[in-house]
Automatic annotation (TrEMBL):
This is TIGR00725 family protein. Coiled coil: none annotated. InterPro entries: CHP00725, LDcluster4, LOG_family_nucleotidases. Pfam families: LDcluster4 (PF18306). It comes from the Bacteria.
Length: 166
């Protein structure tokens, strides 16, 4: 790898998309839209690598010809959804949620689940911006969470916040 391509990879924004593994059809559609728009915007889409919102975001990123990173809870990379380009088997169980948000420059949360809530809390604790789409009310959470009304608004905000490091 050349020094130039290495620097380009290091500067590429990484946006995590988090949400329930047991997602409903609306959440899946939102995740696909966000993943596609993030990919078109040049970001690497980071997820927990499994089903539900994670699967939808990775599928959307592929539609946008983007790159996906899946940080899996178990020890078998083969458990990743078929749209994960780079699968990392962490063996950390739910502890991998910390890796998902630490890796990201910003987080988009879609839907509600205990795992989603833990990722939002970890991101806020780490000072990462969080965009909420069909998720928790920002008034119920800590500072650093901003609402979005559509996949486009969520992706645009996440890309902007990641770029400025807010």
């Amino acid at each position: 790898m050349s020094e130039q391509s290495s620097q380009a990879g290091a500067s590429r924004r990484q946006i995590a998309v988090v949400g329930p593994e047991e997602a409903d059809e609306r959440e899946l559609q939102l995740a696909r839209g966000v993943g596609r728009l993030l990919a078109v915007g040049g970001a690497v889409v980071v997820t927990g690598g499994l089903g539900g919102v994670m699967h939808g975001a990775c599928e959307g990123a592929h539609l946008g010809e983007g790159l996906t990173l899946g940080l899996l809870p178990g020890t078998d990379r083969r458990t990743a959804n078929p749209f994960v380009d780079v699968a990392v088997a962490t063996g950390l169980g739910q502890g991998r949620n910390l890796l998902v948000v630490q890796t990201a420059d910003a987080v988009v949360a879609i839907g509600r689940s205990p795992g989603t809530l833990s990722e939002i809390a970890l991101a806020v604790r780490l000072g990462k911006p969080v965009v909420l789409l069909a998720s928790y009310s920002p008034e119920d959470l800590l500072p650093g969470c901003v609402p979005a009304g559509s996949p486009k608004e969520a992706a645009d905000q996440a890309l902007r916040l990641a770029a400025v490091g807010v």
